Write the structure tokens for this entry.
Amino acid sequence: MVVAEHTCMTLRGARAGGSRTVTTAVRGVLGENGQEREEFLASTRQLARSDRRQA
């Protein structure tokens, strides 16, 4: 999972500060088991929210 802020959105054009894009690729058990995938993604969302609060 990659969370990135695109400078093209923050520095020019829309000037939308804080615009982020999330890209996710799943392999192995996460690609095969929907319940495992949802548990993993829920935990990463929780970490991302706590990381934003600390910034």
User: Anything to note?
Assistant: The beta strands are 2-5, 20-23.
